[in-house]
Amino acid sequence: MKKIKYLVLLLAMTIFASSCSSGGADSTGTSNTENKNYKIGISQFAQHGSLDNCREGFIKGLAESGIVEGENLTVDYQNAEAATANANTIAQNFVGNKVDLIAAIATPSAMSAFNAALDTEIPLVYTAITDPVAAQLATEDGKSTGNVTGTSDILPVEEQLKLMREMLPEAKTIGILYTTSEANSVSMIKLYEELAPKYDFTLVTEGVSATADIPLAADSILEKVDALTNLTDNTVVSSLPLILDKANAKNIPVFGSEIEQVKI
Fold first, then answer.
1. Which of 1, 25, 106, 259 satisfies CB 3.0 to 4.6 Å to 45 for a cystine?
2. What is the spatial distance between Cα 214 and Cα 239, in angstroms, rounded to a whole number?
């Protein structure tokens, strides 16, 4: 919730700055923010609980700040269905429709929105991104690379490995399914590769390109590991029920990386 409130604050600041650049107040002294209706495009990369929470919390936080859908806010919500091509089209449509702001949920949607709005004055606010630097949305020192800001949800990888070792003292090999085109997942794989030996784990990874690749990839990796651990990889999480069914059939434990994964 703190992340959502922070994003709402950023959005409110963006809207306020926009109104100030347009004069700040009309001839009667009334603030433009009190009269203007805002249109926001929300691009969500996939349909699952974690990202749904981001969207719902974002809209709720805006309402608490006086920016209420149906009153002074119009929300154009689009879901990319875990397809980067769809995310690109959604972002381009938002720019064509000249929305006041784009809110992008998850790395692929944020990268698509950033590229689409690059030569415009449309600001971008992102959330559910593990590594903004790898996604080229921020520099190494934390500065934004354009008219963009947001929050990171980087995983506590070492704590996850420590928990797995405590719960599975005899385990030798852990596996991760990930999408090769998701910058956040590639970044986390590197961190797991760095830290896994510290806890006497051998790491096995299996990359996928699309949801259709998940069944065979899951079958393959489950033959090689003692446990699976999940990232916040949107393509993989979208197929998590299938993965869990396959893992349960082989009595292989699966560790989630956030609460909605554990609820499945």
1. 106
2. 7
Report the DSSP beta bridge partners of residue 125: 103, 149
**DSSP 8-class letter at 36:** P
Residues 193 and 89 in one domain: no
Q: Are 31 and 112 found together in one domain?
A: yes
178-212 residue pLDDT tens: 999 988 899 999 999 999 999 999 999 999 999 99
Q: Are residues 229 and 161 part of one domain?
A: yes
Band of the pLDDT at 34, cuts 50, 70, 90? low
The beta-strand segments (E) located in 80-200 are 101-105, 124-129, 148-152, 173-179
Residue bearing the bigger pLDDT, 261 or 15? 261
Cα 42 from Cα 38, distance rounded (Å) = 13
Give the angle subtended at the CA of 130 by the CAs of 125 and 132, to the nearest 5°: 55
Number of structural domains in the chain: 2
> With contact defined as beta carbons under 8 Å apart, do 104 and 176 qualify?
no
Domain carrying residue 60? 2-152
Query: Are residues 18 and 56 located together in one domain of the fold?
Result: yes
Q: Mark whether 214 and 94 lie in a shared domain.
A: no
Q: What is the DSSP letter of 156?
A: -
What is the average pLDDT across 236-241? 93
Helix/strand/coil percent split, the chain, to 5: 45, 20, 35
Q: What is the CATH number of the domain that holds 178?
A: 3.40.50.2300
